Amino acid sequence: MPYTAAALAPGGHLIDIAVLASGSGTNLQALIDTPAVRPHVAVVISDNPDAPALQRARDAGIPQRVVPWPGRADRDAFSVEVAGAVEESGAKGVVLAGFMRIVSKSFIDRFPHRILNIHPSLLPAFPGANAVENALAHSVKLTGVTVHFVDEGVDSGPIVAQVPVVVFPEDTIATLHRRIQIEEHRLLPAIVEALIEGRLDVVGRTVVHR
Ligand code: GRF
Questions:
Q1: Domain that residue 148 falls in
Q2: N or C: which end of the chain has fewer CB within 10 A?
Q3: Is it the case that residue 68 has pLDDT exceeding 70?
Q4: Active-site option among 119, 148, 177, 185
């Protein structure tokens, strides 16, 4: 029987999380719609003041913060400000759910093995911002979704979970991404629940699920 947040609450390992999102926020919505996760979303942070993700947070009654992206030259200052917003919320974990900025080493060091990212390919294939487009360009027959811990590289940290998605010959970026997102919205809440409940351990590059 799977653990539930309620079952572990007394003396358990429950942590709150901050969700970082730059865009539409459908993955954030999947987290909001998951009863075991929603009470543990302490804040939603965006670099984009117009991100629909912020409206989703507002509608759910979750505090929102905007930290505008100042440009690559100031990535460290940006990361310090975002880390400050996370810590002020009380969150001990971070979920990058369509966050289009790369955080610096200082940010990663503040939340060791507590930062998850969701990526629309089967890593290590197709890291970076154009994963769906690149998978199609390579005519792969199978792609998918990866949830991984964030390290200093781009989409290179220890893999927590993956789900395959078949590529059809007639797929466009939009149709393939839509099917990938259906899987994202199933996978991410399950893994975030495990993070909240302290059920993910990292040994080298291997993530052990307890
Ligand atoms: C997702 O496809 C995710 O894999 C990628 O960015 C997209 C965000 O979508 N990192 P949304 O904002 O959650 O709808």
A1: 3-209
A2: N
A3: yes
A4: 119
